Amino acid sequence: MVRGGRAVLAAAMMMATGTPVAGQVLDATYRGTMVCEKLPFTSGQMREAIEVTISGDAARYTHVVRLRNAAVEATVEQGTGTVSGTKIDLQGSWKGGSQQYEARYSGSFVRRSAKLKGTQSWTDGGKTVTRACTGAIKRPFKPFLPRGKKLAAAE
């Protein structure tokens, strides 16, 4: 009987350590960066800030767009999205002069952060280019969140 008990205990321990911790999506502002592939008219990959604010099952975000010189003032891509369980889907757009793009990103939360992956479909002078983007966002630790917000179970 002891032998069977040890097997059950071992199986329970493996399940506990082998299963990823589900994300806890709280109402908060999540900050991070997105890295997007090089465009034909840029000198390299772009790594810029993204900020996602989640309230219930709705999200809104801003993502910095800086095409040339880092010293030049950046503009902002803006969009909205949905949160369903631990999954997040975002869609937005940006326009500057003759250039514009539509963006779609999605990801899943693990603990207090999410990894994002998506595309930007650019239109520039009648030509369309699509580039891939990846990134991550993270919320502050629960004690640092503003008080008075509806929060889920403790971390």
Structural overview:
The protein has 155 residues and is mainly beta. The protein is 11% helix and 54% strand. The chain contains 1 helix and 8 strands; from the N terminus they run H-E-E-E-E-E-E-E-E. The chain has one helix at residues 2-18, and strands spanning 28-36, 46-55, 58-65, 75-84, 87-96, 99-110, 113-124, 127-138. The chain has an 8-stranded antiparallel barrel. Strand 5 (87-96) and strand 6 form a beta hairpin. It is elongated, with a radius of gyration of 20 Å. The model is unreliable at 8-21 and 151-155 (pLDDT under 50).
List keywords for this structure.
eight-stranded antiparallel beta barrel; 155 residues; 1 helix; elongated; mainly beta
Helical segment tally? 1
Sheet-strand content, in percent, reads over 45%
Global Rg: 20 Å
Largest sheet: 8 strands, antiparallel, barrel
**Low-pLDDT regions:** 8-21, 151-155
Order of helices and strands: HEEEEEEEE
SS-derived structural category = mainly beta
Overall 3D form: elongated
Q: Which sequence of strands runs across the widest sheet?
A: 1-2-3-4-5-6-7-8
Q: Helical amount among residues, as a percent range?
A: 10-25%
Give the strand tally. 8
Q: What's the overall average pLDDT, rounded?
A: 82
Q: How far apart lie the N and C ends?
A: 37 Å
